[in-house]
């Protein structure tokens, strides 16, 4: 029988650590955070978020051109990012410009891409 090496072979629970983490976790809105990652799990939306992390703001037409989709599709994805608090927009005449909501969102995107580069360099 093949032995599983990535699992504890006995049960040993550190009650102090478990209690501290459970207490901390109970004060968090994990569903809201999961929704953020779910939104960013879409290839088009992560491309859009990355694009917005590279430039302070982009109009919907620029975003569509960068990711290779229609303006309607880009607008749909941008709206979803906005509804989740990841992006914001401003209207200037007939143009709509989007940017990331704040520095935390930008850091989240940059850290994810930096991590991916690091993982690839170890392969």
Secondary-structure topology with pairs:
Blueprint lengths: L14 H12 L3 H11 L2 H12 L3 E2 H8 L3 H13 L3 E6 L2 E6 L2 H20 L1
Antiparallel strand pairs: 1-3, 2-3
Helix pairs in contact: 3-5, 3-6, 4-5
Q: What's the SSE pattern?
A: HHHEHHEEH
Under the CATH scheme, which architecture of the domain at 46-122 would be assigned? Orthogonal Bundle
Shape: elongated
Low-confidence stretches: none
Could you name the CATH class of the domain at 46-122?
Answer: Mainly Alpha
β-sheet strand percentage = 5-15%
CATH superfamily of the domain at 46-122: Winged helix-like DNA-binding domain superfamily/Winged helix DNA-binding domain
Strand order of the largest sheet: 1-3-2
Helicity level = 55-70%
Averaged pLDDT = 93
Largest sheet: 3 strands, antiparallel
CATH topology of the domain at 46-122: Arc Repressor Mutant, subunit A
Cα gyration radius (Å): 20 Å
Structure description:
The protein has a three-stranded antiparallel β-sheet with strand order 1-3-2. The relative contact order is 0.12. A hairpin with a 2-residue loop joins strand 2 (87-92) and strand 3. With 123 residues, it is mainly alpha-helical. It is 62% helix and 11% strand. It has a domain at 46-122: Arc Repressor Mutant, subunit A. Helix 3 (43-54) crosses helix 5, helix 3 crosses helix 6 and helix 4 (60-67) crosses helix 5 (71-83). It is built from six helices and three strands; from the N terminus they run H-H-H-E-H-H-E-E-H. It is elongated, with a radius of gyration of 20 Å.
């Amino acid at each position: 029988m093949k032995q599983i090496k990535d699992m504890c072979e006995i049960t040993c629970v550190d009650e102090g650590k478990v209690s501290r983490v459970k207490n901390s976790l109970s004060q968090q809105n994990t569903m809201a955070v999961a929704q953020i990652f779910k939104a960013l799990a879409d290839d088009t939306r992560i491309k859009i978020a990355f694009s917005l992390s590279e430039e302070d703001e982009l109009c919907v037409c620029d975003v569509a051109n960068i990711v290779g989709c229609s303006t309607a599709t880009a607008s749909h994805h941008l709206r979803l990012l906005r509804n989740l608090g990841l992006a914001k927009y401003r209207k200037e005449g007939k143009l709509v410009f989007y940017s990331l909501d704040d520095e935390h969102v930008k850091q989240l995107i940059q850290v994810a891409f930096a991590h991916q580069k690091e993982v690839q360099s170890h392969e």
